[in-house]
Amino acid sequence: MNTEYLQKVADSTSLECLWERHCEKMAEFGFDRLIYGCSNYMSPTGFGDMEDFIVLSNHDRDYLDAFLSDGLYYDSPMMSWVLSNTGAKSWSENMRRLAANELSDGEKKVLEFNRRFNVVAGYTISFPSSSQRFKGAMALAAKPGLSQEDVDALWAERGSEIHLINSIVNLKIITLPYTRPKRQLTKRQREVLEWVGMGKTVQDIATLIDRTPATVEKHLRLARESLCVDTTAQALMKAAFQHQIFTNTP
User: Fold this and answer.
1) Would you kindly state where each structural domain of the chain is located, as residue ranges?
2) For 20, which of 35, 88, 195, 209 is 20 to 30 Å away at the CA?
3) Which fold has domain 187-241?
4) 47-105: per-residue pLDDT in tens?
5) Distance of alpha carbon 163 from alpha carbon 156, whole angstroms
6) How far apart are CA 241 and CA 244, in angstroms?
7) How far is C-alpha 248 from the chain's CA centre?
8) Which residues of the chain have pLDDT under 70?
9) Angle at Cα 83 formed by Cα 77 and Cα 89, nearest 5°?
10) What is the architecture of the domain spanning 3-173?
11) Strand pairing report for 122-126 and 135-142
């Protein structure tokens, strides 16, 4: 058992340090990409407003832009399981449900999205709830090259240890101070706002990015909602002030 690591978890005073250590520890087991989420404002159908819950992840930004910021996680095949269960679940359940034609179109879309990012094998842990409004969960994605059969074999050997470590980390996370980061615009939202800032119309932008005007309007609306402003002009000013647009960062 990883008693030395668990002691480090117990002694952690910084959420950032704890999360960095935990990502490194899970990578030792073969899980190199993690998403953790918890909420004290859960609704009967989901985690509630993303603004009200803690999200930690080491996935690439492009993946998180779509999965979290664009709301794909709402249709994640494991979401309904997390909301009504506790414990650990193999992602082989996704393939079983797909073969049985039990997945919704939205869930199938998420599976295809995950395949593009090589998020294909792993486990999800749903933690016990201290109240009806609280829920926490951890999604552990296996390293590229590992099959679900490989992961299930690993879990059969060391799953109880991995589960315990994540459960203790969950309990520690909810005791540490959490400063919510500013809401990040997606790559597409940043792009359309920058075009607006250069004087382009919605029709101009649609032509430039090879999308319909309705799609451009959607990205502008989502940008306004993400920045909590009422107009596109306000969104442009706030995004520029936060250095989210007109920068050289990808």
Assistant:
1) 3-173, 187-241
2) 88
3) Arc Repressor Mutant, subunit A (1.10.10)
4) 655 555 788 999 998 898 888 877 788 899 998 899 889 999 999 999 999 999 999 99
5) 11
6) 8
7) 24
8) 1, 41-52, 179-183, 248-250
9) 60
10) 2-Layer Sandwich (3.30)
11) antiparallel
